[in-house]
């Protein structure tokens, strides 16, 4: 039974996972190597809770108790020493994730399940870096975590049925729906989403329509809640480029990153987090939407 969850990485996804886990009643340890990143995460979680209280979505006492259930640390071994489940949410770089999983295997209790929040990468490859491949899995949450209802549960080659069931149960307690996916690069959602976003970038580059009209066409014509260029700005264009490069390497030509995406990343136009991507964001909006 999962009572304690360790979350590794306090960026957009990590702090979002910590937030929904604490609201679900779990004791959470959120870890990051950067004290400044941890402090920002702490402030953002408090801000999100205050918003929920003001909107009548959550009670003040419930939020207070959830806030107190989250501990913050720069030490990975401290974050996972009592964990029943660890969710890794670091950069989408396989070498970085493998090193994290080696450390998790070393420091987490033997019964603990090790999950990755990757949107594209192989849980089998990560599991191979551990001595517990049957207890390794991908739990792909979506941004913003507290609003998005889906978690993709992705089996690695050796993932046990028991591990899958625990991941599903935890996601359900967090208020999420799940789909079970057999591992293949990009899973279900990222393969489709990256194709749509990449084609939108190519259309913008070719002058087919403006960014605003491309997004409007997809939202109103195909009933998507957010346009593909807006979504790329939200995810971060550097993150999207890493995802595209991984899919291109493993799935071939149709996932070749748009030259426009490559150019924007080189220019430092990374989306909302830098204030400029396919759209421009003023400082207040960037701060409000950063989490």
TrEMBL record:
Keywords: NAD, Oxidoreductase
Pathway(s) where this gene product acts: Lipid metabolism; butanoate metabolism
Residue numbers marked as site, Important for catalytic activity: 140
Any single GO BP term: fatty acid metabolic process
Annotated ranges, domain 3-hydroxyacyl-CoA dehydrogenase NAD binding: 4-183
Oxidoreductase is among the record's keywords: yes
Single GO MF annotation: NAD+ binding
Domain 3-hydroxyacyl-CoA dehydrogenase C-terminal: 186-281
Binding residues for NAD(+): 9-14, 32, 92, 97, 119, 143, 273
InterPro entries: 3-OHacyl-CoA_DH, 3-OHacyl-CoA_DH_NAD-bd, 3HC_DH_C, 6-PGluconate_DH-like_C_sf, 6PGD_dom2, NAD(P)-bd_dom_sf
NCBIfam families linked: PRK09260.1 (NF006722)
Stated family: Belongs to the 3-hydroxyacyl-CoA dehydrogenase family.
Name of the protein this chain belongs to: 3-hydroxybutyryl-CoA dehydrogenase
Native source species: Thermoflavimicrobium dichotomicum
Species lineage: Bacteria, Bacillati, Bacillota, Bacilli, Bacillales
């Amino acid at each position: 039974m999962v009572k304690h969850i360790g979350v590794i990485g306090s960026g957009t996804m990590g702090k979002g996972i910590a937030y929904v886990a604490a609201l679900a009643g779990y004791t959470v340890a959120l870890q990051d190597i950067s004290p400044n990143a941890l402090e920002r995460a702490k402030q953002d979680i408090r801000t999100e809770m205050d918003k929920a209280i003001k909107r009548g979505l959550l009670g003040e006492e419930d939020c207070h108790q959830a806030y107190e259930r989250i501990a913050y640390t720069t030490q990975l071994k401290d974050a996972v020493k009592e964990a029943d489940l660890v969710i890794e949410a670091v950069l989408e770089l396989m070498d970085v994730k493998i090193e994290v999983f080696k450390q998790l295997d070393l420091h987490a209790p033997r019964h603990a399940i090790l999950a990755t929040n990757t949107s594209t990468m192989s849980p089998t490859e990560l599991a191979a870096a551990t001595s517990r491949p049957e207890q390794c899995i991908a739990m792909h949450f979506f941004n913003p975590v507290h609003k998005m209802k889906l978690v993709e549960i992705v089996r690695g080659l050796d993932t046990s049925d028991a591990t899958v069931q625990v991941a599903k149960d935890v996601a359900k307690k967090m208020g999420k729906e799940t789909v079970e996916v057999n591992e293949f690069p990009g899973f279900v959602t990222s393969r489709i989403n990256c194709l749509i976003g990449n084609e939108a970038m190519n259309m913008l580059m070719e002058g087919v329509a403006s960014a605003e009209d491309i997004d409007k066409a997809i939202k109103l014509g195909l009933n998507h809640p957010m346009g593909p260029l807006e979504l790329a700005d939200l995810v971060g264009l550097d993150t999207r480029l890493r995802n595209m490069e991984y899919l291109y390497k493993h799935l071939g030509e149709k996932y070749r990153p748009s030259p426009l995406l490559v150019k924007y990343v080189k220019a430092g136009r990374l989306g909302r987090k830098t204030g400029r991507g396919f759209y421009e964001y003023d400082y207040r909006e960037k701060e409000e939407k950063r989490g």
